[in-house]
């Protein structure tokens, strides 16, 4: 019986990655009963990434990613989830507040039609979250993290921003006037999980599904820095919103991935926060208040005298021959980083599973250790002169934590 339940759990986990779930198995009366689907998906993320690697090696003889890029993307995914160690996610917290105090009506939590309505409304809301994250510069400062990879593979989906969650909540609040928090909590997670598998170059064309669903082909365009790719294909699970609002573009010339202006680093905190520093410098450069506001509230490419989203003709031309940023570094260091990265991933997973049984001080200590470790890994990959000393301190701290009540000592 236990083996049967394990199989059921495995198949449900896989189906969750593709939004192939029924209302009956994913409806809950209370938001506290909604499973942490995203956190539970960590093994599936890793498993599918391994499958993608093996298939790409068998198909073309070359992997779709490099160690430095994958490790950096996974590091960003870890950082983006850290705030939920201490409090409920910002999106669901604000949603519950509006629901408790301002709701106008209450849709049934156990109704199939309400489930499907929520599916559509969450995806519609995500379209606008995503679109404004590209069209408003102060929101792009957070979202640019996701576009910083010059590769396109499943690990790219994990390259998430720490700060975007503190602005995206606004777009979902209208739902809270009628849709129960438990229904929202289900769909906001499944919508995110669906977007994992579309970050791949292995899947080319899905035929008629391309008209309705957001697919790898559509999302490759979204991640491109070719002129025809800029500000296109914002959909989450569905592409119909892009077709409806004029932001759709089919895949054409070879897509070149990454930011328009390359940052050439794998240091995770620089990737997360460098654009805020750049934004501050641009803001201070202008004297007129309307230009200052334009820096924040218009597109990343905007300049005085240009259209709101900037002039896409000024985007640096790509030829399709560009190579991703991937400086060489010793094989021994790659092995070292992979081993310690996997160990850190285990600590991260254990910390989430056991956080309610640990003291707040222990959780804080482990959070600090994880952040220090991710910084050290980035320094190693970038081959910074201070990397050996920082890594030595990290290893000393790891041994110290092993002596106390932490996931190390279990």
Provide an overview of this structure.
The chain is mostly helical and 410 residues long. It has two domains: 2-245, no CATH class; 331-409, no CATH class. 54% of the residues lie in helices and 0% in strands. It is built from 16 helices and no strands. The chain has helices spanning 2-16, 37-40, 42-60, 67-81, 90-102, 112-135, 137-143, 165-168, 181-197, 216-222, 240-245, 268-285, 289-297, 331-354, 360-382, 387-401. Helix 4 (67-81) packs parallel to helix 14 and helix 14 runs antiparallel to helix 15. The longest helix is centred in the N-terminal third of the chain and has 24 residues, at 112-135. It is globular. 36% of the residues are buried. Residues 1-5 have low confidence and may be disordered. Its EC number is 1.14.16.5. InterPro entries: AGMP_C, Fatty_acid_hydroxylase, Sterol_desaturase/TMEM195. Residues 116-247 form the Fatty acid hydroxylase domain. This is Alkylglycerol monooxygenase. It catalyses: 1-O-(1,2-saturated-alkyl)-sn-glycerol + (6R)-L-erythro-5,6,7,8-tetrahydrobiopterin + O2 = a 1-(1-hydroxyalkyl)-sn-glycerol + (6R)-L-erythro-6,7-dihydrobiopterin + H2O.
Report, as a whole number of angstroms, the end-to-end distance. Answer: 29 Å
Give the biggest sheet: none
Give the helices and strands as they follow along the chain: HHHHHHHHHHHHHHHH
Overall, the morphology is globular
Unreliable spans: 1-5
Number of strands: 0
* Oligomeric state of shown chains: single chain
Average pLDDT: 93
Class from helix and strand fractions: mainly alpha
Residues in β-strands, percent: under 5%
Helix content: 40-55%
How many helices? The count is 16
Number of domains: 2
Radius of gyration: 22 Å
GO molecular function: glyceryl-ether monooxygenase activity; iron ion binding
Catalytic activity: 1-O-(1,2-saturated-alkyl)-sn-glycerol + (6R)-L-erythro-5,6,7,8-tetrahydrobiopterin + O2 = a 1-(1-hydroxyalkyl)-sn-glycerol + (6R)-L-erythro-6,7-dihydrobiopterin + H2O
EC number: 1.14.16.5
Organism: Oncorhynchus mykiss (Rainbow trout)
């Amino acid at each position: 019986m236990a083996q049967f339940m394990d199989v059921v759990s495995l198949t449900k986990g896989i189906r969750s990655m593709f939004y192939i779930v029924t209302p009956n198995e994913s409806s809950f009366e209370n938001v506290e009963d909604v499973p942490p689907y995203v956190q539970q998906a960590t093994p599936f993320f890793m498993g599918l990434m391994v499958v993608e690697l093996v298939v790409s090696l068998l198909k073309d003889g070359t992997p779709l990613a490099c160690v430095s890029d994958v490790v950096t993307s996974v590091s960003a995914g870890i950082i983006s989830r850290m705030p939920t160690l201490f409090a409920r996610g910002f999106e669901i917290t604000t949603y519950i507040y509006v629901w408790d105090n301002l709701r106008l009506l209450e849709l049934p939590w156990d109704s199939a039609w309400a489930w499907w309505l929520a599916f559509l409304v969450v995806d519609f809301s995500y379209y606008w979250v995503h679109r404004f994250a590209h069209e408003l510069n102060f929101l792009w400062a957070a979202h640019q993290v996701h576009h910083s990879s010059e590769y396109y593979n499943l690990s790219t989906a994990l390259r998430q921003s720490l700060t975007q969650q503190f602005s995206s909540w606004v777009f979902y609040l209208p739902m809270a006037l009628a849709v129960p928090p438990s229904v929202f909590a289900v769909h906001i997670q499944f919508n995110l999980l669906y977007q994992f598998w579309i970050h791949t170059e292995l899947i080319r064309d899905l035929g008629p599904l391309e008209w309705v669903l957001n697919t790898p082909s559509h999302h490759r365009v979204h991640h491109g820095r070719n002129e025809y790719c800029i500000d296109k294909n914002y959909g989450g699970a569905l592409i119909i919103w892009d077709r409806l609002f004029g932001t759709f573009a089919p895949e054409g010339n070879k897509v070149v991935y990454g930011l328009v202006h390359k940052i050439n680093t794998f240091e995770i905190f620089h990737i997360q926060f460098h654009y805020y520093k750049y934004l501050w410098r641009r803001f201070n450069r202008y004297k007129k208040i309307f230009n200052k506001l334009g820096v924040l509230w218009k597109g990343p490419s905007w300049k005085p005298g240009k259209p709101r989203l900037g002039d896409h003709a000024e985007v640096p031309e790509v030829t399709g021959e560009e190579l991703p940023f991937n400086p060489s570094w010793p094989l021994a260091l790659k092995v070292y980083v992979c081993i310690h990265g996997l160990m850190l991933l285990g600590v991260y997973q254990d910390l989430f599973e056991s956080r309610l049984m640990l003291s707040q001080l222990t959780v804080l200590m482990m959070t600090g250790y994880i952040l220090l470790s991710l910084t050290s890994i980035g320094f190693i990959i970038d081959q910074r002169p201070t990397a050996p000393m920082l890594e030595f301190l990290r290893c000393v701290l790891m041994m110290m934590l092993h002596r106390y009540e932490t996931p190390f000592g279990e």
